[in-house]
Amino acid sequence: MTIWPGGYGQSGYGKSIETNRFKRVLPMIYLSAPYTSTSELLREWRVRRCVMVMAELMATNKLVICPVVMNHEAVCTLFARATDPGRVYWQSLEERLATACDELVVLRLPGWDQSRGVRREIALFTELGRHIRFVKRVAGDDEEMPDEGRANRSCRK
Description:
The chain is α/β, with parallel strands linked by helices. The protein has helices spanning 40-58, 67-80, 87-98, 116-128, and strands at residues 2-3, 17-18, 28-32, 63-65, 103-107, 131-135.
């Protein structure tokens, strides 16, 4: 049986993938968490929480995609140039990744329910009819959340 990767018509980079090549396909999780903040300390704290949850999910044989983690360093670089990827970038990324994922896991960090990005992701997965699960902070995580009003510092140390 041949399938086209990406699910966007027959664009699939012009190549097919033989499904019998794969003995086991692991479930793919989209990890969602609030990110945007004027405080770089808070953004970095959120990224560390996401990495902890990613590790827990990976340990249970789940493939994990987390836009917060995978884009943090690039966003820091853009912020240093006084620019931002913008809403269209984030929405396009969310939509493309969501179509590849089986489940949305929302990390309930402080502010998750007010995050426009998290709300968009929940709405998108609801529209796609995909499972949505909510998780709290990871066991053993005792690092205190930084005050959003504290002085910013560079993403680069």
